[in-house]
Amino acid sequence: MESKVRLNLYKHKKTINLNKLIPQVILHLILICGSITMLVPFIWMISTSLKDIGQVFIIPPVWIPHPIRWSNYIKAWTALPFANAYINSIKIAAIVVTATLLTSSMAAYAFAKIKFPGRDTIFIIFLATMMVPGQVTMIPTFILMKYIGWIDTHLPLIVPPSLFNAFGVFLLRQFMLSLPKELDEAAIIDGANHWFIYWEISLPLITPALSALGIFSFMGTWNNFMGPLIYLNTPEKFTVPLLLNFFKGMYITDWTLMMAASAIAIIPVLIVYLIGQKYIIEGVALTGIKA
Question: How confident is the model over 162-181, as pLDDT tens digits?
Answer without folding.
Answer: 988 889 999 899 888 888 88
